[in-house]
Write a structure and sequence with these properties.
Elements (H helix, E strand, L loop, with lengths): L1 H15 L12 E9 L9 E3 L3 E3 L5 E6 L4 E4 L4 E6 L2 E12 L8 E4 L2 E14 L4 E14 L2 E6 L2 E6 L2 E6 L8 H4 L12 H12 L2 E4 L2 H6 L14 H10 L3 E6 L2 E6 L4
Parallel strand pairs: 7-8, 14-16
Antiparallel strand pairs: 1-2, 1-4, 3-6, 4-5, 5-7, 6-7, 7-9, 8-9, 9-10, 10-11, 10-12, 12-13, 15-16
Helix pairs in contact: 3-5
Length: 263
């Protein structure tokens, strides 16, 4: 009886001393790498997890796509992370945000304040002693403690110490070149001319105008074929319009599309 009892105690001890299996919580995927420029350490299509630091060196830029369709682009010499699908933390360099019609509201946190978008395209750039927010479309609200400032399209807001400086800017030009360099080529095959022009103007910061209302309506039924892969935006524009029997003029930031004159 004593031997049997001892054996049972030993078996219980063995069962109770088995190591428990700990299941690690799943890490949320908040975005995917869309494309890179330079020698990036991440590859296109790779998942980006919540809390994962994204860093670029002097020769690298990268674009990411969030699940809701928001485009997030990192300039060179930048460091940021997505704390969630709606919160970005920026500790160095610059991030560009382009929210689509289905995107949720997104905020960019920095040591100088938090930029909160209201359906827009904007850049947030950190410098050693200042923060700069440049708005292409829509409105961005910048919060510092209990203080709140709004920056609208065509506005730049710079925070340095307690001073806030506001000035007008253009939605296109060389300061946006790094953003444009990370834009995906538009696949024109089977797409309407109007869709292509709207995409191009959004990326370039241009305002789209048609010569008349009828042409504006007709452009949605003009279907494109082929590819503009590898072409610079002005070349892609010329190719797409030529196949549709149209011409264009570009003055400042306005793109005017017209029918080609009859010979």
């Amino acid at each position: 009886g004593a031997i049997l009892a001892a054996a049972m105690v030993l078996m219980i001890l063995r069962v109770n001393t088995r190591p428990s299996t700990v299941v690690a919580p799943a890490v949320e995927t908040v975005a995917r790498v869309e494309q890179t420029r330079g020698k990036a350490r991440f590859s296109s299509g790779a998942p980006v997890h919540a809390g994962e630091w994204l860093e670029t060196d002097a020769s690298t830029r990268a674009a990411f796509r969030l699940a809701d369709g928001t485009s997030l682009r990192l300039d060179s010499r930048s460091r940021a992370r997505l704390l969630s699908s709606s919160v970005v933390e920026l500790t160095a360099g610059a991030v560009y945000i382009d929210t689509g019609s289905d995107s949720t509201s997104l905020e960019v946190r920095t040591p100088f304040g938090t930029a909160h978008d209201i359906g827009t395209q904007f850049e947030v750039r950190l410098r050693e002693q200042s923060l700069r927010v440049r708005v292409r479309r829509g409105v961005v609200e910048l919060r510092r403690g209990e203080e709140s400032m709004a920056a609208r399209a065509g506005t730049e807001l710079t925070i340095e110490g307690v001073e806030a400086v506001r000035r007008d800017i253009s939605a296109h030009g060389t300061e946006w070149d790094w953003v444009v360099s990370l834009a995906l080529a538009f696949a024109i095959e089977g797409r309407s001319l109007s869709a292509f022009l709207e995409h191009l103007c959004r990326e370039q910061g241009w305002t789209l105008r048609y010569r008349d209302a009828r042409l504006a309506r007709d452009s949605s039924s003009m279907i494109l074929h082929g590819s503009v892969e590898g072409l610079r935006p002005p070349e892609a524009l010329s190719v797409a319009l030529a196949t549709s029997g149209l011409v264009h003029t570009l003055r400042e930031s306005e793109l005017l599309v017209s029918r080609a004159a009859m010979p």
